[in-house]
Model the fold of this input.
Amino acid sequence: MSSAAEVVDRLGALRERLSRAGGDHVKVVAVTKGFGPETVAAAMEAGLADLGENYAQDLLAKATELPARPGVSHQPRWHFIGRLQRNKIRKIAGLVHLWQSVDRPELATEIARRAPGARVLVQVDVAGIGGRGGCPPDDTAELVGRCREEGLEVAGLMAVGAPGTPAQVRPGFRLLASQAHDLGLVELSMGMTADIEVAVEEGATMVRVGTALFGPRPS
Done:
């Protein structure tokens, strides 16, 4: 478990990494996947307001328990960043600030039903790795259009980078940035602890970071 002071120190180091890459403006989404409510509280005490969760049940549990934690006077802005199951949307619809992993039309329809006008990012599979989520790049424009037809606010695009060296990661991030530009979208959620520099260099406006803030995820 990380204390607020430890998170503050790690956040400072992370900001230095971002700054060296030209990302002073980049928003940090603190990924609390696998960590308990005490880590969420420490993140908020450290000044992190945007928190990311991968599982609906964990987001619901943490959001429910958080107000009772000492030093926490307000709810964070929750980002849902994991593989989204349609039947779980109803449970967290009132809690999510930004749905980052919309990758198929039926999710757009269900989010619009449960949270009309919600802000979303369309997730694009830029790495071509099965099981990670994301629509094929050729389908991005169509899915963005479908989300808009459902009355959702499409803020931008999201992707998980390919594993490997910066040279292996960069093409996917560059593709995402190009698609966002062509579609007139502002937000680019790409980059995690291992590849934030490349993401920033290619235009990321937000990065999703867990390990660099909280240490290794508990087993």
User: Anything to note?
Assistant: The two ends are 12 Å apart (CA to CA). The first helix runs from residue 4 to 20.
